[in-house]
Design goal:
The strands form three sheets. The protein has a five-stranded mixed sheet, covered by helices on one side. It has a four-stranded antiparallel sheet with strand order 1-4-3-2. Helix content is 57%, strand content 15%. The two termini are 59 Å apart.
Length: 454
């Protein structure tokens, strides 16, 4: 068991690390694709830079420092072996002409105190190591004071040898060119990758816009573009859209035929009852049943048909809500309407009016006061319908959206109806890309909120 726990522990840590990394990774395809391209490039360039700095740069600097140290060691040997020239002018001339070193012998004395060392300098450490190994005498170097020159002082028996040499003689000073080329090419490759990926992502975004517009019933001119796989997905979407539209057309045609036939029969019933001379209670009941059947038939067909075939168009919400207010006031209900923001939104006019009309009709059926509020922001259109009725229990607010469901409590959402009012309203709201939520109203009853994107 202990061994099994030890095996499971790394797997659990791996899953936690994976979830942590997934939570911090970008969610967009464009950003993820950039990471897939840029991350290997950065890793490769970092490895190359490290290899260059660690191998090539240090090796070249070590060899250059060793060569300069050998020249200095040779000058020291000559100075110690041939002390005939007390001023060492000949040796200085040889050092200047043949070795590119500026040499002079200073009077014997102590070396200067150690100066500040650079935070990161391959030259300082490499040259000091070579001086200790090849010469083995007390020395003092300054690689900081003069940017282009290096000063070296070596303690000898007869004085102090002072040497000035160019930094390039002991140091691979052109390495920054390699780094600049590496960074420059990386930036160029990243810029090319960004432009290329943007062109590749644009067809995917266009396909997503077309799918969203089709879900909202909006027409959009879409032609598949981009990579082969994206074009295949685009053609598949177009074919799916054709099949859906064909199925909707067939269903609409069938429903129109059924409704025509049933309306014909109901019309015959109404005509037969109208021609009857006797006005009896039984005849009145038959007429009521026929009217109820006609109303139920219209509700069923409206739910089954949905808003198929209707195109989206700009609708003035203020005008639409005023019309619904007028209808509610005709039935004796005090109604208030308030609109904030841009009142024009692009929706399916008849379907959206039916959606809000069903909510207003439910509010009128169970309350005396109605308040309708429309709010428009850059992304959403929200419409709330409040009433002062008995409301709906919290546990049943989702159930009432199911087709043919009617509550038995004091508030019956479709009293005397079919139980389709809220189902039709939510179906229309969701076909616009939104939804309907029920909550508590400030008036004391129910609040129905329609929220659709604009």
């Amino acid at each position: 068991m202990r061994a099994l726990a030890l095996v499971k522990q790394p797997a659990s840590l791996y899953r936690k690390a994976g979830r942590w990394l997934a939570g911090r990774m970008p969610k967009g395809l464009y950003a993820r694709a950039l990471i897939i391209i840029i991350a290997p490039m950065v890793i490769l360039q970092s490895v190359l830079a490290y290899a260059f700095m660690e191998r090539h740069w240090q090796t070249v600097t070590r060899r250059l420092s060793a060569a300069v140290t050998q020249d200095i060691a040779g000058l020291i040997q000559v100075a110690e072996s041939y002390p005939q020239d007390p001023n060492y002018e000949t040796l200085s001339r040889i050092a200047s002409d043949s070795l590119n070193l500026d040499m002079e012998i200073l009077p014997r004395g102590p070396l200067p105190p150690p100066g500040p060392k650079p935070f990161f300098s391959i030259l300082d450490s490499t040259l000091s190591r070579e001086l200790r190994q090849q010469i083995g005498k007390p020395f003092w170097i300054d690689t900081v004071g003069r940017s282009n020159l290096i000063e070296i002082r070596i303690q000898l028996d007869f004085g102090v040898m002072r040497i000035l040499t160019r930094r390039s003689q002991a140091y691979a000073s052109n390495s920054h060119i390699f780094l600049m080329w590496m960074v420059g090419t990386s930036l160029v490759l990243i810029a090319i990758a960004i432009v290329f990926l943007r062109n590749q992502i644009r067809p995917v975004l266009r396909l997503a816009e077309a799918a969203e517009a089709f879900g909202k019933g909006q027409e959009i001119d879409f032609h598949p573009r981009g990579a082969r796989e994206v074009r295949q997905a685009g053609h598949a979407f177009i074919e799916m859209r054709r099949r859906v539209e064909r199925a909707i057309e067939q269903r609409t045609a069938m429903l129109n035929g059924v409704s025509h036939d049933l309306r014909t029969i109901l019309t015959r019933f109404k005509l037969s009852t109208a021609l009857m001379d006797e006005d009896t209670p039984e005849l009145d009941d038959i007429k009521k049943d026929i009217d109820e059947m006609s109303r139920m038939l219209e509700a069923y067909l409206a739910f089954a048909r949905g808003d198929a075939g209707e195109a989206s168009a700009p609708v003035d919400m203020g005008q639409l809500l005023e019309e619904l207010k007028t209808d509610a006031e005709r039935t004796g209900h005090a109604t208030q309407v308030m609109v904030s923001g841009d009142p024009v939104a692009r929706v399916r006019p008849d379907a959206f009016k039916r959606c809000i009309g069903n909510l207003v009709a439910n509010a009128a059926r169970h309350g005396e006061k109605i308040a309708i509020t429309a709010t428009r922001d850059p992304r959403w259109l929200s419409i709330t319908v409040d009433d002062d009725g008995p409301g709906i229990p919290v546990g049943q607010r989702e159930e009432v959206f199911r087709p043919f469901v009617r509550l038995d409590e004091s508030r019956n959402v479709d009293e005397g109806g079919t139980g389709l009012g809220l189902a039709i309203a939510r179906d229309i709201a969701r076909s616009h890309g939104g939804d309907i939520l029920l909550g508590d109203s400030p008036l004391g009853g129910l609040r129905a909120t329609v929220r659709v994107p604009v």
